[in-house]
Write a sequence for this structure.
């Protein structure tokens, strides 16, 4: 996710460069790493470099209804300005913006997208993820995952309130476990 932008920093304001993004980053601490790919456009501004583009990734999330882990695809529309910490020609330290939360280009003129991608992915992550829209959830009595079939807790006539929904879900999806993301 790192790129050397010294040439672009030397180029006139308004110059652009496209950059293919492809790699793996750790989005939330301790995860296995998410593949990230896409393309960004780098634009030389009067202050630094504006990075814009659409990236794709997938994060592992836990279904809020059945607690199973599944991959949730995310689309990240990145738009961030990066500020160089030193002047590319003179090597003199540059003053940085007053407002916090900006990204920098280090003294070796390396622009690193990792942290921005991580932050955008965390924001894009759903708050209450569902492994599929009609996830049947867990049996309130035995905790059985009702997506995998019914349990024996509720004999005919004493069904839990959402059993009609889960029956529907099961008949619709019994043959297509992959198509539910
Ligand atoms: Zn689920
Ligand atoms: Zn049960």
């Amino acid at each position: 996710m790192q790129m050397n932008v010294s040439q672009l920093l030397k180029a006139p304001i308004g110059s652009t460069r496209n950059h293919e993004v492809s790699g793996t980053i750790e989005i939330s601490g301790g995860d296995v790493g998410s593949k990230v790919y896409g393309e960004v456009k780098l634009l030389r501004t009067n202050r630094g470099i504006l990075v814009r583009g659409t990236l794709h990734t997938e994060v592992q999330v836990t279904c809020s209804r059945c607690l199973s882990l599944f991959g949730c695809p995310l689309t990240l529309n990145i738009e961030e300005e990066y500020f160089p910490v030193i002047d590319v020609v003179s090597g003199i330290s540059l003053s940085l913006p007053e407002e916090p939360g900006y990204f920098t280009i280090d003294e070796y003129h390396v622009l690193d997208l990792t942290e921005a991608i991580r932050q955008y992915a965390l924001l894009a992550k759903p708050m209450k993820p569902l492994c599929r829209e009609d996830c049947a959830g867990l049996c309130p009595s035995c905790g059985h995952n009702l997506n995998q079939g019914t349990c024996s807790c509720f004999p005919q006539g004493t069904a839990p309130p959402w059993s009609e929904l889960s029956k529907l879900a099961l008949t619709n999806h019994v043959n297509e476990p992959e198509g539910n993301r």
Notes: The mean pLDDT is 87. The chain is about 15% helix and 35% strand. The beta strands are 2-4, 16-25, 34-44, 49-62, 69-84, 103-105, 110-112.
